[in-house]
Amino acid sequence: MKLRRTRHRGLRTALVTCTAIGIGGATVAATGVATAGAKGSSKPLIVWIDTARVPYEKAYMAANPHANIKWVLYNGNENGTGILQSKFALWNRTGWPSDAPDVMFDSQNYDAVQLGSAPYNDLLNLKSYVPKSVLGKFAGTSMKAGCTTPSGQVICLRNDSAAEVLWVNPTLYKQFFGSAPIPTTWSAFLADGTALNTAHPGYVIGSVGDGFSVDDYFLWANECPLDQVIGKGKIEINPGSANCTGITNLMDSSGDVGKSLSDSSIFGIPGGPQKIVMAVGALWEGTAVFQTGAANGVPNGTMVAYPAPTATNGAAVTGDLGGGLWLVSKHAPNPKAAAALAQFMATSPKVQKVGVDAGLPQYVPDQATYLSSLSSVFGDPTQTEAAWKQAAAQVWDGWSPVPWSTDNVWASTDLSAITASPPASMTAQLVTYATALANQARLAGYTVESPNKSIASGS
Amino acid sequence: MVVSDGHASARRRRQAGGQRGAQPAGTSPIAGYFFVAFYVVLLLALGIAPAVYAIALALSTSGGLGVSHFVNTFNFFLFLPAFEHIATFEGIWLASQTVFVVILALMVHTLKPRVSAAFRLVFYLPGAMAGSASAIIWLFMFTPSGSPWAFILHAFHYQVLSNTVQPGNLPIVFAIMAFFTGAGGWIVIMYGALNNIPDELIEAAEIDGSSALQTAVRIKLPLIRKWIVYMLVLSFAAGSQLFVEPNILGVATNGEVPAQWSPNQLAYYLAFQQDSFNNAAAVSVDLLVIGLLVAVLLVWRGRLFEVE
Description:
The complex is a heterodimer of chains A (459) and B (308).
Chain A: H1 2-39, E1 45-49, H2 54-63, E2 69-73, H3 83-94, E3 103-106, H4 111-116, H5 132-135, H6 142-147, E4 157-158, E5 164-168, H7 170-177, H8 186-199, E6 206-207, H9 213-219, E7 228-231, E8 234-236, H10 242-254, E9 261-262, E10 278-282, H11 285-288, E11 304-307, E12 325-328, H12 335-347, H13 349-352, H14 367-372, H15 381-392, H16 406-413, H17 415-418, H18 426-443, E13 447-449, H19 453-457
Parallel strand pairs in A: 1-2, 1-3, 6-9, 8-13
Antiparallel strand pairs in A: 3-12, 4-12, 5-10, 5-11, 7-8
Chain B: H1 7-19, H2 29-59, E1 60-61, E2 64-65, H3 68-75, H4 79-109, H5 113-124, H6 131-142, H7 150-155, H8 161-164, H9 170-195, H10 199-207, H11 212-223, H12 225-240, H13 244-252, H14 263-272, H15 277-301
Helix pairs in contact in B: 2-15, 3-15, 4-9, 4-12, 5-9, 6-13, 9-12, 10-11, 12-15, 14-15
């Protein structure tokens, strides 16, 4: 008995000692690595970019070969994956690590206001780092709409414009509509779709099959007040407004929903982008949706951009679908360098003119250089460039960036009803949509104003 | 487990009696302590400590200890729908899994050994895919334009993916996904449980004139009752924490499956998209309490830990 106990005690002691050494060793090793890093050259700027911005990185490093920058690829916070939100929330609790990003590219244009306001408050106010003259040269109201908090802080720089134009395939258009003029109103546009429903089924004038289709292509472009921030923490959500019902009534009566306004995503139209006669869409869709120049896509020199239809209330505005942001972290060890880098990325022609896919720069002085590189990609370059510049300056600023995704709310609340056969009434869906939006607004701490009492109070 | 008279059972009883007294020669208790110690350390570090932290977070309000986070989250418009979703999902899934697993296990048990082994392998294979892989495969199966089962989807008038994953269908969609991944493993376990039934018992029943069905229902089923309860306890716990499948479907459908469909997703959303850890902790503690209550109920009523 005695012998056994001693053996066990010996073994137990050995176990404990081994564990202690193991833990101790790991800690020493970790500290050692960290110290070695600090002893080296000054800390590099850490920049998070997505795959589409890799040409920017190459352009920057070509211009500044000795720059002390660490480029990290991530998914650009796309599609509601909330990478930045979750990282920031974690780091706000555990402390910001040394490898946290200083500058980030964010593909979601509603993120900045959330990340720059309570409870996050993690973005640098660029007002004191970027000259006022530079801030004033971004197109239209894009800076006020997406990058300025209600308290007046400037928490991002706009990268590219995703204003909406009317993309037209002139070959198909001439084939189906002859020499008729390109539609300039929503009713003419939808009427063309009605003609296609029966005469040429399978050919489309757009899509309602994505979460962003209805709110970004149709509602935003008609100044529909479902996402209009009217004061600090106050939002107007009015589905009964004529600006909303005007366009939805037109959509319902045209009979296009599910037919020439396809049920499928705009990126997956059955038969390919060659079936799209025309479509209201963002600037970047010229290459992304139509696959211009690719094997399965529309040939180079085909697509032409025209101004999007005038709103049903007569206003010369257009909607927006995307447009990335450059964010600077408030916790950057060298805020001056970080802000300078963000400013360079957003405004330098060396960076902004790189490649068609990068999109029209939101920074107006860079637009001319960029546009001149497009002449081989789209048809009628003069018309296309003019339509782009006009659209970039005409985005309606009443669809405010908020901490929830209006696209995702439509997708989870109304999309299945609209894509069912037969589709539900678009006008009836407005109220369901507005109710869901109001609930999200209250969850985020906003007060909802609406002539519709149940939407305003949530009961 | 039932121990009937016979040589094998007598030997078992002697061994069971022996282990409670002196150690049989050649075994050392230190090995047992060693393995249990590893488990206890991990249980404390990764199970008990985070749970205590969550309970502390959920109860700490700006005015000291209080239940305001529980009240607030209960009043969120996303809270009750999430629990309704998961309750519907659990009801459909647990009922269908229990029925099908038991029936299939009983049937597989009556087959010749090699045929039985082949079938068990076939049933088990879908379980080889982890949650995210199976979600991707099912995404493909549920998309009418790409699915090999398109004719079934078209019969329901589903033309695009957003038809298949409409809100009303989601509990059934996830129940199907969970069933195919989980059922195979449980069939194998039930088969093992059925193999524990002494052959003498089944032979005695057959001599007494019992048909295959009567043997299955009157003899085998009661003897694997504890295993069925065990399956229910584990499946309920796993199902209540559903996260991967709705999350992947949500990202793939660009938000059509809402990011707060299940309570676990809601807790994640509150913590990491709203930076509101106390509220997230409250929802997590709700889930913990529900899981514990159901487990206690099943263990007690199912007499899981009784030795007859």
